[in-house]
């Protein structure tokens, strides 16, 4: 009986080892954090619109159709990298994309959009980053999917890559 | 022998000095002068909250220690809320509603964190049990 018990620590050790090995090999990003905003309504906010001569009122923008929300800035290099994908969403897929311009210079942003193309149907100005805090944003670019009821269905931190582009298309398809 | 002792004392002194400077350097902080509140009591409350809030950019620092722009924004936000008369609990709630429990450096005692809090105690109890059990046996021999 006692000898059999002696195997227990090594079994336990192997178990822990296999758990670690499993977590190492599966495809995951350890710095990615769970969003508490998933399946919750979009935060309400009002701010200036970058391109239109009127206020940006969140309740008028969300809740009509599935919308992609993209936090971006001209000073952020990954935002430039993902821009082609954001454009594909609005041009090829016909998805409504809202941009939230984070702590940026409006003039520079307008130039940036003229140069690279504008995928956004409307751009909200987040001058001091206060709107981003309400969305739980901690590093731009960040992209959210808001369904037709105004509920957040998906969040991605970091630039949209080919893989994420496919994933977002899949989730939008499910939520239509 | 005497030389060895002197070297040992020197090493001991060096280590003590390093430890002490580390300890006191913790008192210096990244809170910028323009952020500090006039009311000392309110400022103290803000500092205490900031020490418990994780900087989401650096993830292993509190916003009280972090130089990240988001940490500064949150420090100012906390101070504005204190000025408005919000209670500490309301401020913590505001932050966890947006960033989740992860923003608290100390995880809350919840059903999902039960293992986290209770496992060390269980291991300790098992350890004590093993030691007692082992002693009994060895006394018999």
What does this 3D model show about the protein?
Helix content of chain A is 41%, strand content 20%. Chain A has 176 residues and is of the alpha/beta class. Chain A has a single domain, classed as 3-Layer(aba) Sandwich (Glutaredoxin). Chain B is mainly alpha-helical and 141 residues long. Helix content of chain B is 65%, strand content 0%. The interface between A and B is medium-sized, with 16 and 14 residues.
CATH architectural designation of chain A: 3-Layer(aba) Sandwich
* Class from secondary-structure proportions of chain B: mainly alpha
Q: Note poorly predicted spans of chain B.
A: none
Total beta strands of chain A: 7
Number-wise, the strands of chain B total: 0
Span between termini of chain A? 61 Å
CATH superfamily of chain A: Glutaredoxin
Number of domains of chain B: 2
**Proportion of strand residues of chain A:** 15-25%
Structural class by secondary-structure content of chain A = alpha/beta
Write the element-wise H/E pattern of chain B from the N-terminal end onward.
Answer: HHHHH
Biggest beta sheet summary of chain B: none
Strand order of the largest sheet of chain A: 5-4-3-6-7
Number of helices of chain A: 6
